[in-house]
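Assemble and predict.
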Amino acid sequence: MELNIIEDEYAGTVGSALIKVVSLFFIGIMIIAFTANPISVGTNQGQRAPDVEGKFYNGSGWSEFDFESYFNYSWQEGDISGQWVAIEFMDTDCPYCVKSAEEYGEYSDYFNVNNPNWDGAHVNFLASATELSIQGHDSSRDEIEAFRDKTGGEDCAGADCSSRPGAVHNFPYIDDLDQDNMAEWGIPGTPNYFLIQPDGIIAWSSSENTNEEISDAILRLVPRAGA
Amino acid sequence: MSSNLIVAIYLIPTLIGFLIVSPWGNIITSSLKERFPSLTTLRGQLLGGLQLISLAGFAVSTQTLWISSKISEGGTFCSTSETFDCDDLLGNSELNVDPIFGLSWGLIGMAVFALLLFIVFVLQQERNHPLAERLINIGLLTTGAGILVIGLLVSYEIQEQKICMYCTTAHIANIAALVGFFRLKKVFDNKSEWNNEA
């Protein structure tokens, strides 16, 4: 039997260089792996909430919204002084959003440090108002204002905005008529709710907890003084 | 330790490497030739400079990946209200990854400088390796393509009106490596100079 042995006098050169470089690469990766615990940005529970951009209306006018200002990245779990964020992705012409407006407004008044009956951390309520690409969903900033303030002259899901259930909302409405935030957050439909920890990590989302209301999630997850 | 001081740890060897691979490299290496005989030839000088640049580039890329990871945890590293602020760029989840595959720029930098280091190691051990010309061309192409990436990343810095010193150090390392590989190719094309012994 004859054996054909292929000799490569340069193999050692490439091999030793490769070993050195690969070792260096893995040392670098291992240093990062052992000293950092990166959190990805996304809309699943446990991920860092993506940014929400645009102008917001708080009852007096439209100004630039700063989502990051709501968060304290050094917040520690259980710290009651940290403020949580509840955000609703909605459309002023979506009948389900109109229907849920009453409850969402009540929650914003209840889970508030100014409410003597609530002993938990403060929850900031937000609404990101979009215009879904569906026939009959023609929204505008005037309509967002009318929906929030319950003023007349604008049509919200087939009825005058002043007739929507519930009281006037006291929380900011962000203009997402161009659907930028919807796309960034991967929102499939409205209404869609998220509860975000004070450090910007998503604690709960309605799409991952279809059998739980946002109010129940707040009661379950937000730290309370008596707990 | 101040974040600017940490930048100096990477920037100084990068700039020394840049000077070594530049046409004035002889001035820098003249006093070192007795201690490092490989620096007596132009080939050895260029490979020595490229080794220093690639190592510094690899280290600063590792540091940027680490900073991105730490910021994602919610921490800060070099956040200032001034122009020199890397947190706003390395912590931006849209800008700190490439737009096609979503890979961290830091990780891409690590891979590129590791490749350059591999080329340098092979050529240092065996200058007439059958793949020598191809390896030099790969180095030249990689660092040349890096110029396009630098253009994109600088446009991000202009957009955000911030300058990330760690990223800039990696950019300088890429430009220095491009100069080094360009000169190395010229030396390779002149066989007598390429095979010149110390």
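Strands of chain A lie at 55-57, 62-64, 84-91, 123-130, 155-156, 159-160, 173-176, 192-196, 202-205.
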